[in-house]
């Protein structure tokens, strides 16, 4: 870990009795894979997350661009509090359902137009998440610029719809502009058992950058993964370092 390496770092000073742990998934907890379906969740990570959930009195949540149904399949049988679909879904406790009326689906006409972007070539993948649609090019890196340009032009062709095209890691995703991870984290932190705790958020992506500035006013702080991000307390080299840190937190706080 950089900056936080000198081990009186904020990363080590965490008191599980007073923090809420908020964890991004892809690129933070999990190593990247060629396609969304190919990621692997180490069994030790499930055990650690389950242990930290108990140890924080339920104040641990995943904060992901993935939808809850997808998150639950990945981490099964573990079910965790989670923000899904970049804030489209919110589950405060295991076993609860996100309110389906919370966020409308992305307009089907927009989805159909976006699906046409896959014609740019083999390896451009469509991921339909209901609330949003993502176009991935990890398998076709040479198509990234063209995919991004087409997606932006399609969004501009719907001037009456409040759409947002969000870039990510070898992906661009179109969703309603009304919500994002930051608005959902702010909402989560107003609800028990998160309310009154200090949010500690770990994330790697462009979409995570909006969360970091809302943490200090809540008494919290953030850590980046794979790079330095201004306004964070430090950074982890990669998901393996994040997982090792979480293991250590549980051991020390048990
Ligand atoms: O907010 P996150 O939990 O970090 O989710 C962000 C996106 O992650 C997934 O896509 C990314 O990971 C894939 C698997 O490693 C990789 O193939 C892809 O290139 C990445 O962009 C997921 O598929 C998206 O729905 C999430 O929004």
TrEMBL record:
Organism: Rhodoplanes elegans
Catalytic reaction equation(s): alpha,alpha-trehalose 6-phosphate + H2O = alpha,alpha-trehalose + phosphate
Coiled coil: none
InterPro entries to which the protein is assigned, alphabetical: HAD-like_sf, HAD-SF_hydro_IIB, HAD_sf, OTSB-like, Trehalose_PPase
Keyword hit for GTP-binding: no
Cofactor or coenzyme needed: Mg(2+)
Pfam families registered for this protein in UniProt: Trehalose_PPase
Name of the protein: Trehalose 6-phosphate phosphatase
Keyword Hydrolase: yes
Gene: otsB
Source lineage: Bacteria, Pseudomonadati, Pseudomonadota, Alphaproteobacteria, Hyphomicrobiales
EC number of the protein: 3.1.3.12
């Amino acid at each position: 870990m950089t900056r936080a390496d000198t081990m009186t770092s904020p990363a080590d000073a965490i008191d599980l009795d007073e923090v809420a742990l908020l964890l991004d998934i892809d690129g933070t907890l999990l190593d990247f894979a060629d396609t969304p379906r190919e990621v692997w969740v180490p069994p030790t990570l499930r055990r650690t997350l389950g242990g930290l959930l108990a140890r924080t009195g339920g104040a641990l949540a995943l904060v992901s661009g993935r939808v809850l149904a997808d998150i639950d399949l990945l981490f099964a049988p573990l079910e965790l509090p989670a923000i899904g679909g970049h804030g489209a879904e919110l589950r405060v406790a295991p076993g609860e359902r996100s309110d389906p009326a919370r966020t409308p689906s992305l307009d089907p006409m927009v989805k159909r137009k976006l699906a046409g972007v896959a014609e740019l070539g083999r390896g451009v993948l469509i991921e339909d998440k209901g609330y949003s649609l993502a176009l991935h090019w990890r398998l076709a890196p040479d198509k990234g610029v063209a995919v991004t340009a087409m997606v932006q032009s399609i969004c501009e062709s719907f001037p009456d719809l409040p759409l947002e095209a969000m870039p990510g890691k070898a992906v661009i995703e179109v969703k309603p502009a009304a919500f994002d991870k930051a608005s959902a984290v702010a909402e989560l932190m107003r609800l028990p058992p998160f309310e009154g705790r200090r949010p500690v958020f770990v994330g790697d992506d462009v979409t995570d950058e909006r969360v970091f500035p809302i943490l200090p006013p809540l008494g919290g702080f953030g850590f980046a993964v794979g790079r330095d991000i201004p306004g964070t307390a430090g950074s982890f080299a990669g998901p393996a370092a994040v997982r090792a840190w979480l293991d250590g937190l549980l051991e020390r706080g048990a």
